[in-house]
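Standup, Tuesday
Yesterday: got the pipeline producing structure tokens again.
Today: sanity-check two examples.
Blockers: none.

Example 1:
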Amino acid sequence: MKKLVLLLVALAPAAVALDAEISFKSTEIEPGIFLVEAVGGFGGGNMAVLAGEDHVAMIDDSMPPLAESLLTHVTATAGRPIDFMINTHVHGDHTGGNAHFAASGTVVFAHDNIRKRLLDDPSGAGGPGGLPVVTFGDGVTFHLGNIEARVIHLPDAHTDGDAIIHFPNANIIHAGDILFHAIFPFIDLDSGGTVDGYIEAQKRIWAMADDDTKIIPGHGSLTDKAGLKSDIDMLVESRELVKALIDKGMGVDDIVAANPLAKFDSFNWSFITSERVTRTLYRSLTTEK
């Protein structure tokens, strides 16, 4: 995981330098709840601003080079400063703005394991100033006037510190990186993630949703229960396809060469390809207990 965070943080300045058009847009998907997305280039995962009657919270905060422009944008979106930051997991494309936001007075909340990992390497939070100052185990609930946000820890999924945020009154779920919609997911086995736990976490989100629920993925477009089901089905079938070749005694390189996930080529993207998912599935199926 540390290598991934360092890669993301290292690539971010180059991305900003090469593409000065990276900016942010906010879309109000329910009263007071805004989906925040980067436009013009890779700007981290999908974020959200929760503009309550008296307080404002935010979910995730992109990468260090973009923190200043993001803070300006979301402050304008909310109409006042950001009081609370909720990190969905430890990766630097979701926590990289922590230090900049904290310097402006934002209090950072995260799962216990996120703080533990960032203590080892705070660069993923923009430096030591970005360490979460409030941590939780199973979860915590924010009461922002008319907005109730239930932060729920789902264990051993994308990492060992994942949280989703459920808005029961607004019928919205922010899934963090437990959902990469319509693209192959990254499951960080080196940061406590597991394939089985990832699938179980997705199924739990699916069970919480109804046909009208808006689901915000960590990466990919806004989706719904049916869209989530298609992502679950893809990953479950992918696991079965790789397992079938393992059961035949094939090694990882031979399995990659056989390209068992060819039917899901439309899920390929720049960071996670079918080969990378195949290797993750192989490693998981041969080492997880």
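Example 2:
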Amino acid sequence: MDNTGYTTITRQTGLMREMQVIANNIANAATTGFRQEGIIFSEYVKSVDDGPSLSMGQGNVRKTSFVQGEVASTGGSFDFAIEGDGFFLIETPLGERLTRSGAFTPNAAGDLVTFDGYRVLDAGGAPVFIPPGVKSIAVSSDGTLSADGTLIGQIGIVQPESPNDMVREDGVMFRAEAGFFPAENARVLQGFVENSNVQPMTQLARMIEVQRAYEMGQSFLESEDQRVRQAIESLTKV
């Protein structure tokens, strides 16, 4: 395969990755706390002997958008949303993880857990415990929890040291490899959840653009293949 073919195939591979990311965004447009993703394309330029340089593009880096999603009212005592920067701190079998999805509920043991059963941690890294038989739960803007008027703890709201280096896990969970620290400007809302920050119409428009670009590249590859075949046939007839 010549340089033209390699260059086009790398472009097609990047476009395919972007199409997969866009499809995942659209599929999670209604997922609480989901963060939209995009693809970053990079260009590699290499000098070629006695000719122009060769340029190849690759789309292999995913970038997450941390733009605030719309906050929706649920009225649930254990539904929480964060306004501003910050994440809920969650305990998983693989370690502590961060999420913006605040649809929680107490389990049989009284621990506040996520939809998947992972325990929500407090500001000190301990599980948040809801005493049995409480009639009302109140949460202040800094995450402080009260049960029937008695202080019982504070939900851990943290900020990653390096947001762009976080690794996405399980859709709405992130691993902060660089560590995290207490969020200072975050505000907790009770009875609300944060919707996905995906903009479906924008994503659909981008999907059409990517599909057309991919079809154009595929047409070019087919034309190039036909040209090479004709050249080979001409040479074999000589």
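Quick observation on example 2: Residues 3-63+207-237 form one domain. The chain is about 25% helix and 35% strand.
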